[in-house]
Amino acid sequence: MVAFFVIDMNAKRVILKGGTIVRGGTSEKADVSVVDGRIECIAPGIDPSVDDEVVDCTSMIVVPGLVDLHVHLREPGFSAKETIATGTAAAAHGGFTTVCAMPNLNPAPDSMENLQKQLDIIERDACVKVLPYATITRCRYGRELVDFKSMASKVAGFSDDGSGVQDEDMMRQAMEAAVKSDSIIAAHCEVDALLKKGYIHDGEYAAKNGHRGICSESEWAQIERDIKLAEQIGCRYHVCHISTKESVQLIRDAKARGVKVTCETGPHYLTMCDMDLQEEGRFKMNPPIRSAADRDALVEGLKDGTVDVVATDHAPHTAEEKSRGLELSAMGVVGLETSFAVIYTKLVREGVISLEKAVEVMAEAPRRIFSLGGGLAEGEAADIAVFDLNAEYDVDPATFLSKGHSTPFEGWHLWGECRLTMVDGRIVYEK
Description:
Blueprint: E1 3-8, E2 14-23, E3 26-35, E4 38-43, E5 53-56, E6 61-64, E7 66-71, H1 84-93, E8 96-101, H2 112-125, E9 129-132, H3 148-151, H4 168-180, E10 184-187, E11 200-201, H5 204-209, E12 213-214, H6 217-233, E13 236-239, H7 245-256, E14 261-265, H8 267-271, H9 292-304, E15 309-310, H10 325-328, H11 339-348, H12 355-369, E16 384-394, E17 413-423, E18 426-430
Helix pairs in contact: 4-6, 6-7, 7-9
């Protein structure tokens, strides 16, 4: 039975008993005790008292709560697609305790006044921690810089996600403002002039099936430009949802030179290629799923540390918006409720990366890069997820807590199911 609720456990000690703790690149059998919303102790054989709440984690893993740096919660403005309540319920279902919400909203969070509208809904409805992004430019139009200083302390960073900043001087000004406010630029990299009305990868599948393609250069050319700017200015620069082999190499080379660049990719880019596409809207997202060579380069980048983070780009739409096929469906798929299981099944179980590496890129690196604090350590907030790696199931979008049901993983047979999610010591999801 699946239960979604919030139980305040702060009045008593909670002991997660008998699990395998995965953190900091290591795994060990130990118990975790939680008191007043914080981790009190991590050690083998913690003895419960009669007043303690004991959660049996035998044969399960206990990990730092997952962090997704790239989600679309759609509120305010587009609540038919998703709300803060449904999106954070989906996050809890997937083992996420912190998500960073993108600014494709109405009104866009381009001022403290507009940002506050979003923060008020988060305060009222979120069951996990939500850090919004503010926009880089007013209304994400790319023409006028927002006031970084006024919003920096309230946001994860600044992004015009969904739109690349086309003007180089505007991006230069943004990076300078980010340095002054000690903020991160999280860039959606896309050269509009190179899109040519494409909607899937400009590769083998597009050619065989008569579709208009999006070339890889539309992504990597802007990354190349921005890396040069970040190197000159000293800005912390995070590249969203990279999908091409050229992007991986540009970021790898920049890191070797000491540029303050990090990046993320999504589970679908790591596990699929364009020849896996079907003529359905659930395979359409931006950037698109690209070639097998791109997929393999992303996997290698994940293994060698070039790719820092796995983020979902959870982007829900209505069923009607995703029912129009590859050409006409809205861009975006959901991912919060399948992310860990896809990575565990396709990369960990198949020996591509270790379980410890999966936890690093899904929970620990995002905290470190964005200075979020926390983690599975004594004294930290009790943001914890428990997974049963032996649980196997077929992906059925009807079981999702998100309003969005469009996923390229529909029907996939996966291992690794979230059994419990705890935020500040409160159980927000339990199966």
